[in-house]
Every structure is written in C-alpha cells, then in structure tokens.
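Notebook entry, cofactor series.
This is the third protein in the set we're modelling with a bound small molecule. For this one the ligand is nicotinamide-adenine-dinucleotide. I'm keeping the input format identical across the series so the outputs can be compared line by line later. Sequence and SMILES below, as received.
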Amino acid sequence: MVNYKCLNPIAAVGVNLFTDDYKQVDSVEEAEAVLVRSASMHEMDLPADLKAIARAGAGVNNIPLDKCAEKGIVVFNTPGANANGVKELVMAGLMLASRNVVGGINWVQSIKDDPDVAKLVEKGKSQFAGREILGKKLGVIGLGAIGVLVANAANGLGMEVYGYDPYLSLEHAWNLSRDIKYVKTKEEIYHTCDYITVHVPLLPDTKEMINKDTMAMMKDGVVILNFARDLLVNDNDMEAALKRGKVKCYVTDFPNEKTAGMEGVIAIPHLGASTEESEDNCAVMAVKQLKQYMETGTIKNSVNYPNCDAGALPSGKRITINHKNIPNMLTQFTGVLSSENINISNLINKSKGDYAYTVIDIEEELSAAIEEKISEIEGVLKVRVI
Ligand SMILES: NC(=O)c1ccc[n+]([C@@H]2O[C@H](COP(=O)([O-])OP(=O)(O)OC[C@H]3O[C@@H](n4cnc5c(N)ncnc54)[C@H](O)[C@@H]3O)[C@@H](O)[C@H]2O)c1
Ligand SMILES: O=C(O)CC[C@@H](O)C(=O)O
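Returned structure with ligand:
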C-alpha cells in the first residue's frame, strides 16, 4: 500500500487513477508520495519515507528541489499540461491592455440604475477607446510550452512576433511558426516591441529580469504581461515606470500587496491554469508519473533527478538507488551484490547535475540485510526494492 497526500485539491479525473494499492492520508508525515499545486513546501519537514512529489503544473518554485534531491525524493512536474489554458488568458491579457474593457465594464455598473443608461453609454464611451493589436510588435521571452503557443496565436492575430529563448528545445523549435522572428538577445526585444510577455521559470538568473534598467531600454508606452511569476518583475521599478508613462500597462497573473491596487496594473488572481481542461490534464499527468515511479521506478519529467525509462519489471526484484553523482558508485553497488553471489540481469545508470539514479534488476529475492548494505554506501540517498 502506498500512502499519498494531496496538498491542494487535485482534479478527480487524476486522483481516480489511484488503484486500491494507494491510500490517501491526512498528513504529509505519513506520505510516501505527495501531489501539490501551488502550496509552498519550503518550510515543511520532509518525512524519511517520502519518495516522490508530483507538481500538477509547470512552476516548481514552491518546492525545495535541492533539499528533496538530497533526501532522494524525486520531484516531477507536468510540462505543457496547462499551456493552452495560460495561452488563452495571455491573449485575453493582450486585449484587456489594449481596449479599456475593464474600465468600461466598471463604468456601466456605476450608471446601470440610470433610466438613461443607453444614451449615457453612447455619450460617454469615447473615454474608453483603445487601440488594436493588429500589426503591433510582441516580444515573447521564453519559448517553452506556453511561450510558443502565445507566439503562434499572436502571429495568427496579425501581430509581428519576436521570440527569445537561449535554451530553446528542439521540440519547441519545431512547433514555433516560421513567421516568428527568433532573436539572440533580450535587448532586441526590449528595443523593438510594443508588448512584452514573459514565460520563463523563476530562477536566480530570471528573478527581477524586468527592472529599471531593462525597462529603460523599452519603448515608451510599452505593455508588459507577466503570466509566469511575480518575482520576475521588480515591483518598485514597475510602479515608477507606470507613473512616468514609460510602461502603459502591466498585466499580471500574480498580484501581491504591492501590485494588487497599483495604478496601471491589470491584476488577475492567478487564473492562467484555472480551467477544467488544464486542471484535468495536469492531474492526470502528475498521477500517472507518480504511479509509474512508485510501481516501476521509471522517472519521467523530473526536475531534480534524471529521466530514466526502467522498462518492464523483472521476474525477480528491482533495486532503485537515488544517489550523489560521484565516482565509484556503480562498482560499490555491484560489489555488494556480487559478494552475495547475486546475478544482475539489467543495470541502468543516469545522472543529472549533482545527482544520479541507478536501477538494478536481479532474478531473485533481496534480503533486507543486503538492501541495508547498499543504503549504507556513502553518497546513497534512497534505496527502494520493487
Ligand atoms: N499563470 C499560470 O497559471 C501559470 C501556468 C503555468 C506556468 N506558469 C509559469 O510559466 C512558466 C513557463 O511555463 P512553461 O510551461 O512554458 O514552461 P517551459 O519549461 O515549457 O518553458 C520555459 C522556457 O523558458 C526558457 N528559459 C529559461 N530561462 C530563460 C531565460 N533566462 N531567458 C529566456 N528563456 C528562458 C526555457 O528554455 C524554456 O523554453 C513556468 O515556469 C511557471 O512559472 C504560470
Ligand atoms: O496550479 C495552479 O493553479 C497554477 C499552476 C501554475 O502556476 C504553474 O506553474 O503550472
């Protein structure tokens, strides 16, 4: 039986994939597997039995990835599963920043009880006139699952689209329309574009990438859209830029105490992935990845351990070892098994940065004492026998 804990509500279509071999528990302390959306896990004690965390979503800045890796806990996310939901809201954000729909709607509400409302609407509507996006230049920073969809959709609406991503993957490059102008520096986007949208993860090198220096390079009256994470933007610098008119409008899906009421900000309550379709896609992908890892040791879409297709289970036992990526580990693992006269039928070893993962298939049972011996090897972080 595998105990799992959901730290946020996870769509039923995903949770229902758990069979009778899985049991939902009330506290993280009892869990071997965790499902999470946006709940912060940074201050949480991670129990010794915890083996995997699946983030039903893309951003993993709410999870202490290094601390998890150090404890042999594999963290998964669900790349692309909510990308269409976010793309659609970004397109809405482009419109809301261009046409004063929000101001107009609020105004109608303020005059709704006036018997002359229809006449007042025609008389007063000019104060909410806007501009069209057709022919305007859009810069997309980060051409991953969301950025590519946004770039292609904006291109389809007649915008001239520029894209920047120094780590562009082959898969995403294939999906990018040939009309998108791929640029080699962010500065080209800053200097050129009327609208700039960011779709990068929050990392030390992307934190506050939109700040007074980068905004100084932008066109006067630029519109900035942030459907990625609030800390990508320096809020004090944004406030000053909005006041000066350097930035015409800032659309954010991550309002905080500073930006929620800021003039010139369109604040949306983190709704990018809040669609039935995205929530279902993320939940199904997260649960499938978690189950596959718990049941077979295969790692797919991990952000802190290497991906590893462990293949079908052997007739005997499978030993999975999460360990440090340091020399001489395989010799020690195979040494323990050969000293017990155990034959290895298959061995896979993968590494990612400071961490590695080894899967060893044997055609017989494995005693707890031998498992213990492997666990005691320096650099071994977690051992499982499936
Ligand atoms: N608003 C929401 O509800 C919502 C939903 C999903 C994702 N997000 C956020 O959006 C981000 C992007 O999501 P995604 O699904 O497209 O992820 P993704 O991993 O598919 O794409 C991220 C892209 O950013 C690129 N990148 C990384 N560092 C960069 C840099 N310094 N400059 C330019 N590009 C860089 C990567 O190469 C990658 O192509 C997530 O990390 C998350 O924070 C928000
Ligand atoms: O779970 C959510 O609602 C938001 C998820 C989103 O921010 C993500 O990074 O995938």
